[in-house]
Amino acid sequence: MSEARVTGVRHIDLAVQDYARQVDFYENLWGLKKVDYDSGVAFFAAEGSPEQYILRIRESDDRRVDLVSLSAADRADVDRLAEQLGHDGVQIIREPGELDTPGGGYGMRCFDPDGRVVEISADVARRPFRVLEYRESIPQKLSHVVFYTPDPASTVAFYRDKFGMLVSGWIGDHFGFLRTSMQPDFHILAFARGTASYFHSSFELRGYDEYMRGCGRAIQAGVPLMWGLGKHVPADSAFAYFQDPNGLVCEYSPPQEQILDDDVYVTKCWSATENPGDVWGTARSANLPETLPPGNKPGPTDPGLWIAPPV
Amino acid sequence: MDTHERVRAITPEGVRRAYERSLEVQSRHGVRYQRMWAHYDADDHGRLFCLSEAPSREAVVLVHLDAHGLLPNEIHEVVEAPTEAAPLPAATQRMVAYV
Predict the structure, then answer these.
(1) Where do the domains of chain B lie, and which CATH numbers do they carry?
(2) pTM for the model
């Protein structure tokens, strides 16, 4: 029997103080589709993705990450992962069981080494979706989620060893990128050195034209542009980091490079001095006084660490 | 026809595995794969081209998701173009004559 592993990233769940503005932003400007909501909780899908939802917004007194959701192949793998994690001393928050979120399914929750909540689920029903058209500048899927961690090496090792994720690359020893064999984008999760906190989520548009149109829409609407437009060497993809109404960084990006044959791919390593973050030289002005782009500064420690979200 | 851009670590073995996985799952979504082509790039940014008969573009996406997760950048409905010289439409013939 092969080792159970996660297969991809499903959604990022965030709690914010200004719920109404956050919901309005992601529904009416960012281009997501509000597919379900209850009092103080809203679920957003990407029109181009069969995932039930890729973003959950919850109203809260604290701005925190509620959880990041990963997928598994089937219920048996959820059970096997829970058993392995429990055996390894990882704190399980919710034992495997039926899920009551949109799409149902079967899932479990645990803490990662920094206290983030990770949900792993299978058997979640797909939603009707459609392939986006040329020039349609709305997200087609959740591209990736990035966190800060005090110890990137051990955090990346946890996701590699406990969840069977694959390491695609490193910038120095401070920024590690992870994928899975069944979602072989260069990264679907990444960890950068900093206080344990949220960095950003990236929403994929179908191509470069749609990325530019989406960025233009956000810029014209006055959404703060924190870093970009530019292109990273890692993932060989463009980026634009915006700030949502609650001060969280949200990114537009076109599709990343993908990796076909895991047996021959060699983890890429860039030195910290190579400046792989801004291939085009367009991402920020050299006249800015900051040594770090404003979209790249770790925030305070996430207040949600080691605390299970109420939903 | 679906196309994949900027694919790293394209190997004949990797392509074969991906294609075989597509064949295994294609009937779930009413898709029938015909052929697949690969461009092996010296800079390790290859391309893949897959030809299938499918009821919709969404069905093609679902086969990719179930088979290997390598999603195409573009999916286009294509028809076979004539490969033998055929008489040009009259309007085109006039344009050609004036060039």
Answers:
(1) 2-81 (3.30.70.3090)
(2) 0.94
CB spacing of A264 vs B4 below 8 angstroms: no
Check CB contact under 8 Å for A180 and B10: no
Chain B contact set for A232 (CB, 8 A): none
Q: Is residue A28 packed enough to be buried (19+ CB in 10 Å), middle (13-18) or exposed (0-12)?
A: exposed
Percent with pLDDT over 90 in chain A: 87
pLDDT attached to residue B43:
81
User: How do beta strands A258-259 and B2-8 pair?
Assistant: parallel
Burial of B69 (0-12, 13-18, 19+ CB in 10 A): buried
Is ipTM beyond 0.85?
yes
Greatest CA separation for chain B? 54
Residue A279 has pLDDT above 90, yes or no: no
Cβ-Cβ contacts under 8 Å, B10 against chain A? 260-261
Number of structural domains in chain A? 2
Preceding amide of A229 cis, omega within 30 = yes
Question: Do A221 and A290 fall within a single domain?
Answer: yes
Which residues on chain A are in Cβ contact (under 8 Å) with B9?
A: 259-262, 264-265
